[in-house]
Structures are given as structure tokens and as C-alpha cells.
TrEMBL record:
Residues 12-157 form the Glycoside hydrolase family domain. Belongs to the glycosyl hydrolase 5 (cellulase A) family. Pfam families: Cellulase. GO terms for molecular function: hydrolase activity, hydrolyzing O-glycosyl compounds. PANTHER family: ENDOGLUCANASE, MAJOR EXTRACELLULAR ENDOGLUCANASE. Keywords: Carbohydrate metabolism, Cellulose degradation, Glycosidase, Hydrolase, Polysaccharide degradation. InterPro entries: GH, Glyco_hydro_5, Glyco_hydro_5_CS. The lineage of its organism: Eukaryota, Metazoa, Ecdysozoa, Arthropoda, Hexapoda. This is Glycosyl hydrolase family 5. Signal peptide: none annotated. One of its GO terms (biological process) is cellulose catabolic process.
Length: 160
């Protein structure tokens, strides 16, 4: 799976257009309640040019900018849809699952303007069978997962 929502052969505009088409095509279908705008944006902190990043820039690989632009275009077609936003892999050298790291929301929350109530942060979380992570070591439990990973990665959004 590609790190980003675009490639040299598949420009971001195609992704925007596809999301708009989906929103418009299914606007009368009550079973469609939202759009996850990209599955698991990712990329390594040590290779920033090809990684999904999260800040206030207009850079092509800025996940926040892509989400806000995509959401505006989606909601213009169907204002009832929920906009599901996953995390990125790495932020300020804090690593997480593809789609699971929502640490940057603290510094750069998604702003959907009048569509803000449609925003759903949707972190991806996995178990140790997917990848051995430090938070699974030493007899992990709900409490250790919460304190060593979930709280800082995404649970703080709900709690604060």
C-alpha cells in the first residue's frame, strides 16, 4: 500500500475527485454514513520526503492539509457524511501503527470549519500478532497499554 494519497502516476486531485464522486453518488444511501479518506497514511520519520506528515503547511505530503481539503470537497457534495481521519505512522520521532498515531492532533488539530461536527478521529490499533511493539512486553494488560501507548497516541483526544 502506498504511504500517501498520491503518487507520481496518481495525483492527489484524482483522490479528491474520487472522494467527491463517492460522496455525491451515495448521498441518498442511508447505509453510507462516512468516508475514511485514506487507509493508514504512513512513512518513516527518517525518510520525511516520502512520509505522511502532520503540520500547518500546504506541502503535498501534509496529511492535515489533505484531510481538510478533502473534507471540504466531500461535505460540499454531502454534508451529512462523517469524515474519518486516521493517524500517521510517525510524528516528532514518536512512532506508532500505520494510521494509529494521533499525537499531532495536540499541536495541529483538524479544522473542518462549519463541518467540524462531522469529524471522527479513527486510530488503527493492533495486537502483538501484527508487530512486536515495546508496549506488548512484560505481561501487558489494559492498564499498561493505556499508560504506555493509548493515552499519548490517541486516548487523550477523548479524555481532554
Amino acid at each position: 500500500m502506498d504511504n500517501l494519497w498520491y503518487t507520481s502516476a496518481h495525483p492527489a486531485e484524482w483522490t479528491y475527485s474520487g472522494l467527491e464522486w463517492f460522496a455525491d453518488h451515495y448521498k441518498s444511501n442511508q447505509a453510507i454514513i462516512g468516508i475514511d479518506v485514506k487507509n493508514e497514511p504512513h512513512g518513516r520519520c527518517d525518510n520525511p520526503g516520502t512520509a505522511a506528515k502532520w503540520d500547518n503547511s500546504k506541502d503535498d505530503n501534509n496529511w492535515k492539509n489533505f484531510v481538510e481539503t478533502a473534507a471540504a470537497r466531500i461535505l460540499a457534495k454531502n454534508s451529512n457524511l462523517l469524515i474519518l481521519v486516521e493517524g500517521i505512522e510517525c510524528y516528532n520521532n514518536n512512532w506508532g501503527w500505520w494510521g494509529g498515531n494521533l499525537i499531532p492532533v495536540k499541536d495541529y488539530p483538524i479544522n473542518l470549519g462549519s463541518g467540524q461536527k462531522q469529524l471522527v478521529y479513527a486510530p488503527h490499533e493492533y495486537g502483538p500478532s501484527v508487530s512486536d511493539q515495546t508496549w506488548f512486553h512484560s505481561g501487558f494488560s489494559y492498564d499498561t497499554l493505556y499508560s504506555e501507548h493509548w493515552r499519548d497516541s490517541w486516548m487523550y483526544i477523548y479524555e481532554e
